[in-house]
Every structure is written in C-alpha cells, then in structure tokens.
C-alpha cells in the first residue's frame, strides 16, 4: 500500500510543484515567495487547486523561523487590503445613489482581500487549527508591529463568525475522557493549577464533581474553554475545601448547590471571542436536567486585581477608601506568614472586608467598569455579587494577588436578564443584601483606574 | 422531573415574555413585531439574551403563513442595511486618507446589519438549519421580489464562510447508515430516482458499490451533497448496466474503474455554495486508499441540455451543425418508441453522434461556456470529456432530455489542474482523442445560447 | 497492500493445508473428512491451531449441501459422546466413595465431547453466528433424526450459558438505527407483519412509539428479541387503533400507558433460551426512567389458540363450555364477512366472551397449563389477565386464529412476583376483577388438550 | 424524577424484602442466610425473581467481612454439589444401557448445583465482575481450605466457556483511550512497572509504539490482558533502549521488527483461562495489516527463574552444568554492583551465556517442561528461542531475578504450528542456529526441578 500511496502523494506533490513553477514560484521557499503563493490563492477563479495551494502555504509558513513568520504576516497586513480603485468606484456609485445595493457594493469592495485569503487557507486539512495558531503569532507581535492590527481584526471577524455559539459542542469531561484531551485540561487550567493526574482525577471522578468544555468540530480534541464544577450542600467559601484530598463525597442527587470553581480559556488564538457566558448558561441547563433538586448556581472566583488596588489605597495620600487607622492595621500584611496569626487575621478582616466591598462596588476603570476583570465578566453575564470570602484562597497565588480573598457570584436564573441589562446600560451592580451591608456608607468616590482590556 | 423542567422552561419563557414586554413587543405576534424583535437582537450590547431572542424570532417566523414570511424577509432586506450616517463618515475619512485602516472602517460601516442579524439568529439551537430553510423561501421569491436579492447576497456570503470546505465532514453512506439519513438520500436523489428501499439497498449494500456524502456539524444528519459510485471492470456506457437488479457483484479489489454515476445536491438553501468539486476529489483519494489498484475515475453523466439544443438545430433555418440530410434522418425521433427500432437507431446514431460532439465542444452560452450544465461542472473541475454513449439512458427521462445520450467525464489526476486552468482561462475543453475524432470538421461556429445560471 | 496481504493469507491458508495434510485430511472435502477435522480440533492439547481449524470446519460445513450437513451433524451426535471407559472408571470411583470430588469427576467424564467441540468451534471469527445457524439445521431435522436430540441438548446447554441475561445488551431501536438492523426487524416481526419501510417508520419515528431489542456482543447487529411499544392515554383495545396510518401523535410525557403490542423472537437457533421475560422487565424500567408518569404497563396480545379451541367446543358432543344455544349462535361464524354484520357481531359477542374467559381460565393442556401459549408466557412472567377485547384484530390473520380476539396482559410491578409464584406453584391465574365476572359460573372442567411445547 | 425513582426502587427493594420474608430469610444478614438465599435462587422454577435475588446475594456478599465471605464460599463448595440420589439413579440407568442419552443424563445429574448457581448469579447487573472477584477470594484461600478446589473448578469451567476467545474483543490502547482504562494499564503492568502518566505516555503516544488489550463485553472497561509493542529497526537486546526517555522515534512504515516487550494478565480471578496465545497472534495480524513491511515478530522477555536455577547450580555438589572454574568466576556475582565492573562483566558473560543456554534447553521441571515459565508460555505458543541478551535488564528486578538476562522469543508465522506441535508432543525446543551454538556440548542431563504450575 505504502508504495502506491507514496507514488500518489508524490504525484500530487509534483503536480503542486509543477503548478507553482508555471507561476514562477519555485525557487525561494521563504516569506516573499509565500506572499506570491497567497496572491495566487486568492486570485484563482475556481477552487480546483485551492486545497493544494492552501496546504502548501501553511506548510511553508510552519517551517519558517518566527521572525520570518512575522515578516510574512506584516506583508499580508499591508499587501492584501481592499482594491482601492474598485473601492473608489463603489464609493462613487454609492454617493451618486445611496441605497442598499450600492452600499452593499461598497461593503464588498472594501473587504480586505485578507478575509478571502483566510477563508481559502481554511480549505487545507486542519487549516482552522493552523489559522488559530497564526493568530497567536499576530497577538504576540501586535505591540511591536501595530500594522498587524488590521490583520488581527480580519481574523477576529472571521473567527467570531466561525466560532459562533451555534457551531460549538458542549461535552462533559470526566475520567472516561480520552487521556489526550485530559492532558490539555491539565495544561490549560489557568485558575487553580492541576498538580498531576491524581489531582485531575480528584476533580473529575468523584460523583459530586463535573467538568464541561466547549469544542468546535474543526478543532478536533481541542477544548476551547472549560469549567470545573463542585456539587455541594452550601455555597463554598474556600477553594481548599473544594480541592481537599480527603473529603466526603456527596450523593449528587442531594446537592443543593453547583459551584463553578474554575473557568479557563484554552485558545489564546481565539482571544476576544467570548464563550464563557454561553458555557455557564448551558452547563446550568444540563445540571438542572440531571439533578433537578439543585437550587443555587454560584461561582467560587478569584479577585485578581484586589491586591494591586489595595496597595494603591494603602499608599494613597488624598481621599481614599482606607482611613489612616485602616492603613495601620493593614501594615500587618507586610509580615511574612501574616495569615497564620489568628489575632492579626481577625484585625485585618475587620478592616479589609468593607474595603473589599468598596473594591467591587466603587472602584472603576477609566471606562466606568469595575476594575476587577472577573467581576466584569460575571456581572456582565447577569450574575450578582453574592459573598466575599475572607481567606478563601491561602495558596501563594491567592495571597499574592488578592490577599486571600475569594468571591461568589451567583446566577439566579430569573434575574440574569435584568441584571445584565442594568449592568450593561447603567453600570448597576447586582448584589446580595448581605454584601450591601458590608459596604461602608462613608466611602468616597474614587479616581478611575485604567484597565488594559 | 417533568414538573421541574416544565417550571424552568416556563420561567425561561416567562422571562422571555417579560423581557419582550419591557420592550413593548408582546402584543402582535406577526411579522411587524418580528422585525422589532430582530432590531432588539442586533442592537443588544451583550449576548446575554441573544440565544433566547434568536430562538423566539425563529419560532415565530416558522409559525407565520408563507406570505407573511415573505413580508418579513422583505422588511429585513429593506430595514437592516448599513447605517448610512456611519458609512458616510467612514467614506469621508477614507477619502481624506485612503489606507488600510480607513478602508477597513468603510468595510465594517458598509456591512449591512442583516449580516450581524443572521449571525445572531444562528445562536439559537438548530439555528443553522432554520437559516438554511429561510434562504429557500428567499430563493423561491427572488423573481417576484427583486429586493430580496440584497438579503440573499448576505446569506450566501455567510453560508460560503460557514460551509467552507474546512468545516465539512465526508462520511460513507452504506447499508449500516441510520435509516433517518437514508430516507433523505432517497428523497434528495436528483439524477436517477431511487424507487424504494430495495432499490436503495442495491446501490449501497453490494461490495462493489459506494456512496459518500458531505455533512456539516451544525446540520445534524442532513447530507449536503452525495455521490453514488460503482466499482467496475471498465468504463460503463449505460445506466441500465449499473442499476441492473440482477447483476454479478465484483470483488472491489479487482475493479479497475470507479464510476460516479449520480451526484445530487441536497440543500436548496445552499445554492451557489459549491461542494461537488471537493467531494469528487476527496472521494477519489479515499477510494485509492481503500483499493489502490483502481486506475480510472470517471463519471456516467446525463446531458440535460442536449434535446433542447438538438430541437433548435432541427428547426434552425440559418447555418447549423445539422445538414438537411441530418434533419431528415432525425425526423425519425418524432415517432414513439423510435429507440426500439434497431434500424432507425443505427441511422440516427450515425447522424447524432457527431452532433453530440458538436454540442459539447462548440455550443456555447452567452458567456462563452458550454451550454450543458453538467459539462460546465465537470470540465470546470478539470475532468476531460471521455466518451459519449449512444442510448446510455433509455428511461423516459433520459430519452426526453437527452435523446438517450450519456457522457463519461474522466478525472485524470495528473491533468486535472492543467485542464481546469485551460478551461477557466481560455475555455479550452479537454477530451479523449477518441471523442475528438467524432467532432465533424466542417461544423460551423454557433450563435451563443443564454443560460440562466 | 493487497499483494502482501494476499501473500500472508495464502501463507496462512497453505499452512492450514499443510497442517491438514500432515494429519491426512486433505483429499475429501466432504462430511467424513469434516468429522476427522473435528476430532483433531477437540484432541489438540493447546489452542495454537484452534482458530484455524475451527474456521476451516465452519467454512467447509457451510459449503456442504443440506443433506450432507445433516449427515455431519448426526455423526457428531453419535461419535462425540463421552469416553465410556473414562466414565465407567469415574463412576466406579464415585460408587466407592461418593463425595463432591468424585461426583465432579463423573460430571466431567460424562460431558460429551460435543460440548468441548462446540466451545472450540466458537474460536473461529463469527463462530457464534455459525453455531446458531447450525442449530437451526438441527432443529429442522430433529423430528426425522431423533438422534440429533443429544446434540441439540449440548447446544442448548451452552447457549443458555453464553446467552445468559448478564451478557445481553438492551438497545433502543428507532428511526436513527442502521438500516441493516431495521431490515432485520422487518424480517423478524412475527406478530403484526411490517408491510414496508413506511410501515416500519410509523412504528419507530413518532414520539409516542418505542422499540427495544436485546443484542449479544458476539452476534453483531443481530437482534435476539424485540418488543414494540405504544405510549397511549388508555389501555388499547384493538391493534388497528395502534397501527392506524393516520392518527394523532401524543406527547410521551402525557401518556399514562405503555402498551407492548408485539414481541418477536428473532433467532430460531436460540429456541428454548428465554429472553422475553427479562426484556419486558428491563423495558418497563427504562420507560419509567424516561417517562415517570407512566402508570400502566400492559400488552396487546393475540390469542393464537382460541379459534382451534372454539372449533373443538363447537364440535364437542360431550360436556363442553358451550351450550347448544351457544353453538347455534356461533354458526354465524361460518359465513364470510360475518364480522361486518353489526347484528351478528353483537349476538356472537354475547356468547363468545364468556367462552373466551373460559378458554383462558379453564382450558388446560396435558401438563395442566393454559393452552394459549401467549397466556402461558405472560402469566408465567407474573402478569395478570386484564381484559379480553372483542374484535381487537380483524385482519385476516386475527380472524383466522382467534376470531378477532385480542388480550391485554398487565404487569403490575408490586404483584409480579406473587403472581409468578402462584402461577408456577399452583397454576393460579391472576386476573382483573372485571374479567373474572366474564367467567361463566356454570362452566364444566375440561379435558386437557396436548400442547407441543 | 428522583422522588418517583426512589419510590420505584424502594418498591423493588420492599418487594425484595417481602419476598425474602415469605421465605423466612430476612433476619440474619450474614453468611448462613446467604446460603439460604442461594438455595432459593437455584431452586426457583422460573427466572421471574432471579435478577432480584442474584443482586441481593452479591450485595450481601460484598458487605461481609473477608472471613465470613470465605465461610460462605466453603458452604457453597460443600452444600451445592450434585443431587446424589438423582446421580445414582442416572448411573444405574447408564450401567443398564450405556449410550449417549444415558451418559448425558449422568452428565447433567452429576453437574454440581454450584454451576447453575454461578450462572444465575450472573443475572445480576455487573454480575460477571462480581463473580470474577469472588474467584479471587477463592484462589487466595485455596491453600488453607482445600475444599474450595471444587468450587474453583466450577468457576474455572464456566469462565473458560464465557471468556471463550470468540467473545473477546481486541482494542488498541493509545493516548486517546479513556483515562479510566489507562489508569488500569498502569496498575496492572506486571513486567516493567509504569512509573507515572508520563512514562505511560511515552509507551503509548509515539508513532512507533503500540499497545493492545483484550476486553470482554461483560467486564466494561476492564482489560483482561495487554501487550506493549515497540516497532524497531532490529531485534532489541535490552529493555533500557526500548523505554529510554530520550530516543529517536521512527516512522512505523520503516520499522522491520515488532518487539513485544511486556505482556500482563490483568484479572487474577481469571487465572488458568489463557488469552496470551490468542492475543499475540491477533496482534501480529493487525500489525501486518497496518505495516506490511514488518518482517520480524519477536518478544523481549524476562527470565524469571534463571537466578534461582543458577544459585542451585553454584551450590550443587554432584553433576552440574557448571564446572568448578565456572563457579569460581561466578563468585563475582556476590559483590554489590558487579554489573558496573566491565572486566568482571566480560568474565561472567563467558561463563554465564552457555549456562543460560543450558537453562533454557536442558533444565526441566518434574513434568519434563522447561523450568522457565516465560519460556514455557512462548515455546508452547510455537515461538522459537531466538537470542539470549546479556545484561538486557540491569534494573534491580532484572538483576535479582535473572542476573540481568533477557530473552527474545521469535514468532515465525510459517513455523509456529510445527514448533507448537513438536513442543507439545515431544518437548522439542525450537531455537535459532545462533543460540544452539551457545549450548555447551558437554553439559550433563539434569535432575528435574518441581514447578508449582
């Protein structure tokens, strides 16, 4: 068999080479030539050779060293824009007679040829995966080469269309999932690192644990985003109780609460395409179907911006949420192992909890949004701020980035839509009555803090 | 369980209703209201309620009577174009400083809001299938309401992106395929009708028969296009020998030829998105892998335009491919059952075969292409005209549309690319030497014939 | 690839041949030689060549004409019994010292070598299927060649062990089931014939229809037994209402009753291995899980022995369940189309219903069991006789074998066990109070009627 | 849902209890009562309550402490033998008229009721798995309670029938296999321990590694036996080169050799049911199909009995394979780390290799078989002794049990059958010419050594 197939593939390869030679593309296998190949790909009238050329482009691109790859991507950004002559003509027609048809012609004339190029590169086997990693390269070099922003916009536009929620598939991840996928779960977990396979097993195998991921049919066995869930009697207050090595496993049909304790995006190349919102809602639906007695859907989330904000408050000389007395108490935080000193911990707690409420309610970025990115995500999805947990995460990471704070955001189905709208339209933050009381009445409005998102 | 889920769905439904009421949309469930709902869908900042609204739009649309559906579609075409103010501003910026960025802004400003609407409708469960059938409605009314052309263009643009070959899945169809899919194969077969399940079984179960279809992950169990293949010792000359009820089944590992005897598109709503080209090439690859001794890949195709063309030639008063003597002979065709009279059949054959060669080589439409649509398809894919088979199809349909002619187009791997290019660039038609000899040397160039494709 | 594999298989085949030659078995490919080959198969110490020899035996057996196959089977029955010398020695030891060990030796010494032979034939690929059809041949010739009974007993013993309920797999059959399996459902349906694929579709596709089958892993895609179920509001009284071409489909979550209207055994070769009992109970469990509001589990069954019994009653001269007046009324049954005459129908009904009750309660075979085989099956499973339906089946078959009667047997979970025991131990027949009233008090005990089961 | 199902299961459970109460079995939940339950299970005429009782027996058995379990098993061995009266009658009939029918009656009368009990216990869901672990308990106590041997024989007899090769399924194990199965591969690997998941990944994921296992449909996700294979250019001489962390991965289509470097049985409860022979042959077939260029199929095997034998030779005072000079050289083996001293290693090698040849060829157990159990397995399967590898395994285990020796057994397809027969019939050992030369001509025949298999 091999001989024959080798022959055939050789033939295909030779035909490919012959084809390229007829187009004068054979000699230099580097970036410049690659651009010509792309030109050939977008300008071919039919698709006859599309698959072959697309494969060749992706193959050669993969073989380039990173800096040559970036050169190539910059060439695409610059040389595959719209056809200016055609665009100017279309604009002229539109200005003469502005209507749906002429506007449509402007739209299609203004479409950068990059988009058609990307669509045609997708013809190659496993093309989508290659395009997703091509975008990683773009994102990594966006700061240095701002011209790549144009190309990035095209990728993002097409990815948003291709990775439309209608095309995503939700799959449960459990201990019977292929190891090749589980290895990626270990790799991509971004919130509470998975130490090893035994750690993973503890998160997947027990009857009161769930994990779900979105997949796209064109990215085989590559999760896009996943969420880990603990079924619990009550709302958990610390990650340690969730991940404890020794703990009692509960009957899932007796759990009252589903706690989403970790949500990780897996594909950097799909940045800006949001899946999390859909994932949470679909998982809630699936859980209700399986265990209808569940009453509470809640997260156990980090507060990744709290420590930085608190440090600024402690340093602040003008009006601040923190009083001088607060600052004195908080000085204890500078000691090592402060969290092991029960007395200090109590003193700090009294000061820090109202400040934390302040952080979530009052601290805004320069676009008027909460400065905590996790808060922005869940509040934007329509969740409400349910509870702030003092020393919910005493791992090194938890202490460093949030002084140990963890937060529960709660999804109350009947309020999700209203919360979402109030937040989107007027920045209103839904919260439990309990947490509202934590908010100091005398806190000052604050200077906005820029966020880079 | 039911009670709980009913409650939950009721809640969702009530929330949906409450949401719509807040937006003043509840009363009229007809088309006008539907337009408002679409407005709401595209203008929502986030996706929080997107799935719910999209589902509601599709549900209500389905419930409308056909004429109200058309009204609704016309409203979309007219009211969901680009934002003219934004577009004019973008054009202004571009004319001031024409560059990639400003051209990109024109592109996005000129994008009809219909496209975003279609993308968001796709959020609904099974949304893609609904959108595909929505386009059927558009196509069916395009002639009467030309304004729908704008909307059609948007659908076609998005479908071309979504149904990119990179997202298609090739699956073998055989006798172990779910009956629900097979029922669709029976329904969609467009070339040689499948009489019943036993007929289907004869095309799928024998060891020397194959069938393959493309599927898209979002259209579950809905074939997009399929091809039926017979593995044979030689190139078959008639459909009767392929579909014979009693025939000897051959060992697939001894077949020399794979004959593609039927290719059917299944989804009218995907008209204009071409799959056939990719399907044939992929099937050839799969067959070679399975049975590497296969040497010849060939179709057994109808000639759907031949009879009409021949009738024109017979009527023609000016220069024509047919001589007066030809016409006299062909008069025999007007008799019933002419094909059962061996003597007439021989006389007609002598006249008709050169005319058929003429039909395929010389008869062009007003765009300079062969007038036979099947010829356009296979020649455009890079196949060559291999053989014309006299009385290859003596079914009522075959006699009516092609006086019984059938054609073999042959895919010679090493020539496909060259043939395709020669055809695409200069209209050159690749053919076997055998068939070239059939072509009468004295035939006149012909007046082009309009085709409606 | 082919060349290589051909070589390899040739090698295997040649090795096989060489092996047989060394044992002097090559020349005659007929039954006698086959017996030698079987001798070789059971007497080989290890399994090294077992698979090859077993395959060869089955291949040659398949190639024999039927009468030679029977000769071969008779040879097995006669020549592959226990080793008498060994058995006599074991018996001697046992009689000297009767204990578990010596009894065990008797057991193994008395085991006919046929059993080991059957186990070793099962080594061949698809061996189980071949053995099942071998038993069909045995059963078909049992009457003519009683010596085959010994062999049949060995098959039955091993099949009972291999097809133990613990190894069976229940699978739902629906419209998405592979056509190859559905074709077998059509073929094997034994109660209410499936006319064609559309008829099948009406039994599988609607939301209120179910079908389940048992499969065994070694008989791929071969159902062993299947049951068709209709979800209905009430207990159905006629098969026509269940199978109506036009009928309203109900929401399965609103059905109160699951009616088992057809149960068919598929494998004649597994006769005597009972699956039906397990199938019904497992299906009830599955249905309850899916639609917990279901309250009533009931069959709609034929009464295949009723007409014969009734005819005997009508002819009977001595004591009988039927009076002379009854007989006079029943004479109307001899007219064609009697069931279309409303007046006659009423008259007959008044007479026939009490007789039917008598038939089910009083008419016994010579082993004291109900003479109706369907009644024996369901009552033996613990169901109760729920209702007798006059003109429940007016098809030709229904009129012929039961004068149109159909019966509902009802499975009341909490009573199944008790009913079963009462029936098994004392022949007591559980029945609804309604049906008890139909039983004429003055009916005479009856002469037992032999049944051939 | 839950409420309803709970009710239903409660009902089942209550019915179960009621049923047991009627039989006076409810009070004591210990072993004695269990025996009564078993009595009830085998003596019930029908299967109506079989599933329920079988489940209850297995549930209660699992809940017993180990010593009570053993008591229960001993009771089965003693109280569920054949019915002596029936057996004596059958024997009488047979002695009167010895024929197939009467011998058959003896066979069935002599069958211990244990067998029927085991078959009925298998009715319970997951019953097969429970029975397999029940046998582990038996095997573990066989030495202490010899009466369990009777029960063990019944289990073994039924398992041999149920786990017939015809019912086994070969599945490839790779990195896409469910983690739950892979965890078992790690656990069951008995030859070269798998350190962790990364070690496992190195054995499964590279293109030149394979792993296959047999499964039985009734033991879901439980491998019965598995083999690990390395595709290599040549016959490997050491396990270190096969398992090296850093090594070059080869194209499987260029490998010439498939080396079986580890074969592990997984189910202690299936001891005595041989799968390895079938596994190797099936894997060879599968590999040839996939990579037809493979020429050599060979093992890399341990020699677990060599060190003990060598120690005996070194101590021996009478005639021995080792000379005094040999013994003097071998004294170096008593030093720690002898294998790191190049000079000693060479000297030892010269002495030990002929002794090793002697070990494999001449050293026999008291049944005349090679004393090395691995040699017995592969030679019995028809392999030949290909090569003895000095210091093929320098792990602690390898040095301890075989002084570092490893062995290649080679499966030459065309010789397998002949080798097997020669070995089985006359103890002849097939070997490469190379290895024959290693055999010292002057070695003495040896005293047989008992083996415990």
Strand and helix layout:
The structure is a homotetramer.
Chain A: H1 2-22, H2 31-43, H3 50-63, H4 66-79, H5 84-96, H6 100-110, H7 113-121, H8 127-140, H9 148-162, E1 169-172, H10 179-188, H11 197-204, E2 209-215, E3 225-232, H12 239-243, E4 257-265, H13 276-290, E5 296-299, H14 306-315, H15 324-330, H16 342-361, H17 373-380, E6 384-389, H18 396-402, E7 406-410, H19 413-426, H20 433-438
Parallel strand pairs in A: 4-5
Antiparallel strand pairs in A: 1-2, 2-3, 3-4, 6-7
What this model shows, in words?
The structure is a homotetramer of 453-residue chains. The first copy, chain A, is an alpha+beta fold and 453 residues long. Chain A contains 20 helices and 7 strands. Chain A has helices spanning 2-22, 31-43, 50-63, 66-79, 84-96, 100-110, 113-121, 127-140, 148-162, 179-188, 197-204, 239-243, 276-290, 306-315, 324-330, 342-361, 373-380, 396-402, 413-426, 433-438, and strands spanning 169-172, 209-215, 225-232, 257-265, 296-299, 384-389, 406-410. In chain A, the strands form 2 sheets. Chain A has a 5-stranded mixed β-sheet with strand order 1-2-3-4-5, sandwiched between helices. A two-stranded antiparallel ribbon of chain A has the order 6-7. In chain A, α2 (31-43) runs parallel beside α4 (66-79), α5 (84-96) packs antiparallel against α6 (100-110) and α7 (113-121) packs across α9. Chain A is globular and about 75 Å long. Residues 1-13, 25-30 and 441-445 of chain A have low confidence and may be disordered. Chains in contact: A-B, A-C, A-D, B-C, B-D, C-D. At the A-B interface, α1, α5, α6, α9 and α13 of A face α1, α5, α6, α9 and α13 of B.
């Amino acid at each position: 068999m091999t001989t024959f197939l080798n022959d055939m593939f050789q033939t295909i390869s030779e035909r490919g080479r012959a084809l390229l030679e007829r187009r004068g593309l054979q000699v230099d296998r580097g970036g410049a030539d690659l651009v010509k190949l792309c030109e050939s790909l977008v300008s071919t009238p039919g698709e006859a050779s599309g698959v072959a050329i697309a494969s060749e482009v992706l193959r050669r691109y993969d073989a380039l060293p990173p800096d040559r790859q970036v050169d190539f991507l910059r060439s695409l950004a610059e040389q595959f824009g719209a056809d200016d002559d055609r665009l100017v003509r279309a604009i002229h027609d539109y200005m003469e007679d502005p209507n749906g048809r002429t506007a449509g012609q402007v739209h299609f004339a203004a479409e950068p040829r990059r988009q058609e190029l990307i669509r045609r590169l997708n013809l190659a086997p496993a093309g989508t995966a290659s395009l997703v990693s091509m975008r990683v390269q773009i994102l990594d070099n966006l700061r240095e080469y701002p011209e790549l922003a144009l190309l990035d916009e095209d990728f993002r536009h097409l990815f948003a269309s291709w990775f439309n929620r209608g095309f995503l598939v939700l799959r449960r991840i459990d201990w019977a999932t292929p190891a090749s996928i589980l290895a990626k779960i270990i790799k991509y977990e971004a919130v509470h690192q998975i130490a090893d396979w035994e750690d993973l097993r503890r998160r997947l195998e027990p009857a009161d644990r769930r994990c779900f991921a979105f997949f796209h049919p064109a990215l085989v066995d590559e999760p896009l985003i996943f969420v880990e869930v603990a079924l619990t009697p009550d709302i958990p207050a610390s990650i340690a109780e969730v991940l404890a090595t020794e703990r009692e496993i509960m009957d899932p049909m007796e759990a009252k609460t589903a706690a989403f304790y970790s949500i990780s995006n897996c594909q950097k190349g799909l940045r800006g395409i949001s899946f999390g919102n859909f994932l949470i809602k679909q998982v809630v639906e699936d859980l209700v179907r399986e265990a209808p007695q569940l009453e509470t859907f809640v997260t156990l989330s980090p507060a990744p911006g709290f420590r930085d904000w608190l440090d600024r408050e402690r340093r602040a000389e003008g009006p601040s949420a923190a009083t001088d007395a607060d600052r004195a108490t908080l000085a204890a935080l500078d000691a090592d192992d402060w969290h092991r000193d029960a007395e200090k911990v109590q003193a700090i707690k009294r000061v820090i909890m109202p400040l934390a409420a302040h952080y979530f309610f009052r601290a805004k970025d320069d676009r008027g949004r909460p400065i905590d990115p996790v808060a922005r995500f869940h509040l934007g999805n329509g969740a409400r701020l349910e509870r702030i947990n003092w020393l919910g995460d005493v791992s090194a990471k938890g202490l460093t980035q949030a002084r140990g704070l963890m937060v529960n955001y709660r999804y109350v189905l009947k309020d999700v839509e209203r919360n979402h709208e109030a937040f989107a339209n007027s920045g209103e933050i839904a919260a439990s009555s309990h947490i509202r009381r934590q908010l100091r009445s005398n806190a000052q409005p604050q200077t906005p803090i820029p966020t880079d998102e």
